[in-house]
Amino acid sequence: MSDLATQSDTHEALDAFWSALESSPFLMLGLPSQNAHSMPMTAQFDGHHGPIWFFGSRSSRLAEGLASSNDAMAQYVGEGHNIFACISGMLTVDNNPAIIDKFWSNTVEAWYPQGKSDPDLVMLRFDPNNIEIWQADMSLVGKIKMMFGGTMNSADLEGKHVETAL
């Protein structure tokens, strides 16, 4: 995969990431200070480049870990494995009723027996500050090599890579 150099390519990669996240809104989210595994979480967001919200449990290691550090990392793998991202940012608890109402659904309600007033419900706000995106597209030569057991190398991938502040 080659590095992206232009600002328009960076915007294109960011747009591709946000679009992919819309169609498959699942991230692995963790707090590096905890030295613990990340957790699968369903992203809630409204538009590109804004905060990402997660419904969570007050007793989860994520919510409890915020007492010591707000630094968070999220990893994303696109549904077709053609886009990958690693995002750093700040995670905070923000139980704003308007945000909870905005993203509330039957699917979310199934996790909280007492609904929006469930004492275990916590709304986590992730404010991304840096993202690294890899877009992979196998070249024709790469596809042929894979079909016949050939040795792959980086030239067999046509893709893009970008790292940028948000």
From TrEMBL:
It comes from the Bacteria. SUPFAM superfamilies: FMN-binding split barrel (SSF50475). Gene3D superfamilies: Electron Transport, Fmn-binding Protein, Chain A. InterPro entries: Split_barrel_FMN-bd, Stress-Dev_Protein, YdaG_split_barrel_FMN-bd. Pfam families: Pyrid_ox_like. Residues 13-143 form the General stress protein FMN-binding split barrel domain. This is General stress protein.
